[in-house]
Amino acid sequence: MARDIYGFGWHQNSAMKYGCAKSVRVSRRFEYNPEWFHSINIVRKTLLIHASNVRNKAANISMKFTPKNLLITGGVGFIGSNFINYVYNKWPSCRIINIDKDDDKFGYSFDEERYVFIKNDIQNIKILTHILHLYQIDAVIHFAAITHVDESYANRIGTITENIVSTSQLLEAVTIHYNGIERFVHISTDEVYGDSQENEDRKDEKSNLNPTNPYAASKASCELILQAYSHSYKLPFVMVRMNNVYGPRQQLSKLIPKFINIAMKNGEYPLMGDGLHSRSWMFVDDCCEGIKRVMESGRLGEIYNLGTDFEISNYDVTIQIHQLVSKLLNRDSTSANFCFIADRPYHDRRYLINFNKVETEMNWKCTTDFRDGLYKTIQYYINDYERIEKFAKLKQG
């Protein structure tokens, strides 16, 4: 007969049922008492937060936290997949559990003892709870979200529901049904601040939230829900709000990979409005290093802006993409062709954030020049395009 491992309905054969693992190590059995479990959980997490903050505030002493068993949500997505690649060798003693509802399309050649992929939706709290206990998760990085502003305008209720419910279910799992989390890193966006006006100071971590689109509103809501769970259940969290990120593996619906694809096909570039909306672009490796340092050294309960001083208009980004693609494909230099399309209901002109806090506390800053990062990104998509074209020809015979 299957054994109840955790005292609330999960058995040894559940691992096989949900495809999470072949076996389970059972340390001891206990009966699940909600009142006892919640009380112990809150006391433990209060002491954990206090101890961590005392360590961080000690003069000239910085105790780095390195996760042993890390749960990553949305690790098949753009930043999540790059982060897994980035930290795998930097945290050699860390086992990474990647949960995503999409297929693991990147085919990691990692040691199966150190990397586990689970295809599932994080809205399934029973499976989440099982994974937390099964792998003894001690840290979480929450990437999973719908992140495209245009998609959020096209499917407002769907975006809001997906982002808020998924985050809430994850928080429910790591606080109510599990008490082993030492660090929960929440990935948010600079868009929660709203846009920046001319001559306005850069937004810092204490600036008011003023989201202007459904995506940004959903992310701001997730932040508030996280803070509520932290207050009520003492969840030890750290949060990052990031500028725009670019690099390999980004979805083709996003501006830079979309325009790279158009450039390779000699198409017209669609620009919204006057094309002069500007963004601060951060290369994905710099972003991953920032998240890594926040996981290791971020003060619990704190928010950190991750950003760059580099800002460029959508029009100028397009020109650079057009020129670099032509150069890499050995084409003659030509002028870019544009077609101007209807703008969003509201289109933020720019986002300017102050990231002195993470620079001061963790000595982090972007080190990749935009043009160098763009070159690497374009080369990735050219190689991917050529691989797909070659496969299509082989398939046709």
From TrEMBL:
GO terms for biological process: nucleotide-sugar metabolic process. GO terms for molecular function: dTDP-glucose 4,6-dehydratase activity. InterPro entries: NAD(P)-bd_dom (IPR016040), NAD(P)-bd_dom_sf (IPR036291). It is an enzyme of class 4 (lyase). Residues 195-214 are annotated as: Disordered. It catalyses: dTDP-alpha-D-glucose = dTDP-4-dehydro-6-deoxy-alpha-D-glucose + H2O. Residues 71-376 form the NAD(P)-binding domain. Its EC number is 4.2.1.46. Belongs to the NAD(P)-dependent epimerase/dehydratase family. dTDP-glucose dehydratase subfamily. This is dTDP-D-glucose 4,6-dehydratase. It comes from Dracunculus medinensis.
